[in-house]
Write a structure and sequence with these properties.
about 110 residues; alpha/beta; about 15% strand
Length: about 110
């Protein structure tokens, strides 16, 4: 079972997808109703683990806080991790992304 990783943009999504994890690209920092439906449909395959890795700018920080609140309200994830104050996924090496994901894989 693999965690679901939530990212802001397409290139960041590709970076994580290359590593073999489930990825949801928001195309921004807010959770649309379609994205919420996608999260709920993937939730059973994640072992209760979700990882949020939005950009580290002000919009990404606010979006991460909002997403944590929304996702916790869904009641489907027992472990919600986030990568605040880290480089954007598209700026990370594969090794850096795997290190960030490590807590979600145990």
């Amino acid at each position: 079972l693999r965690p679901l990783v939530v990212v802001e943009d397409y290139i960041s999504g590709i970076r994580y997808h290359k590593l073999g994890v489930n990825v949801l690209v928001l195309f921004g920092t807010s959770l649309s109703s379609a994205a919420q439906t996608a999260i709920l449909s993937v939730a059973p395959t994640t072992n209760g683990r979700l990882f949020i890795h939005l950009d580290g700018d002000a919009a990404g920080v606010k979006g991460t806080r909002d997403l944590i609140h929304q996702i916790n309200g869904m009641g489907r994830f027992s472990h919600v991790f986030c990568a605040q104050n880290k480089p954007q996924p598209k700026e990370c090496s594969d090794e850096e992304l795997l290190d960030l994901l490590a807590p979600t894989l145990t």
